[in-house]
TrEMBL record:
Residues 7-120 form the Pyridoxamine 5'-phosphate oxidase N-terminal domain. This is Pyridoxamine 5'-phosphate oxidase-related FMN-binding protein. It holds the Pfam family PNPOx_N. Gene3D superfamilies: Electron Transport, Fmn-binding Protein, Chain A.
Length: 134
């Protein structure tokens, strides 16, 4: 898995767009804000209202992310997601949500580890692979 530097961790802690796809390749994208950077290789997103997103992840774990503040962080993240409804990561999510958004009870948590990071900055390096775990 690739390591997330401080800039990446900060960006992923803010509003982001999570793209998933069904096993038949039907894409889906949704905004997500309940994002917890656990360490330099793990992002959790609290499942508060997700529908197609979770159905897709159960069929196809590969996800892509752009952060909303893409002028400050012009990166495209590719990762593998796992959906959990118990265990360490879900406990952490419930605690985080109880502190930040106490009126919303999470249904589960999407745990993402990243395998590639690309530049989306306009110019010569647009689309360039910056980090890979190969
Ligand atoms: C600014 C913003 C932040 C959001 N953050 C989350 C979130 O962290 N977790 C969540 O489950 N839904 C969140 N949502 C709601 C989802 O984007 C929404 O339920 C969407 O329908 C999910 O896509 P899906 O139904 O295709 O799975 C957010 C929506 C907005 C507008």
């Amino acid at each position: 898995m690739v390591k997330l530097n401080d800039e990446m961790q900060k960006a992923l802690s803010g509003l982001l767009f999570l793209a998933t796809a069904s096993k038949d390749g039907i894409p889906n994208v949704a905004p997500m804000g309940a994002n917890i950077v656990v360490d330099d290789e793990t992002l959790i997103i609290s499942d508060n209202f997700m529908k197609k997103t979770i159905a897709n992840i159960k069929e196809n774990p590969v996800v892509a992310i752009n952060v909303a503040d893409c002028r400050a962080c012009s990166l495209q993240f590719k990762g593998k997601a796992e959906y959990v409804v118990e265990g360490e990561y879900f406990e952490l999510t419930k605690k985080w949500m109880a502190e930040k958004m106490p009126n919303i009870k999470p249904k589960g948590a999407v745990v993402i580890k990243f395998f590639e990071i690309y530049s989306v900055k306009p110019g010569d390096d647009a689309g360039k692979l910056l980090e890979t775990d190969d």
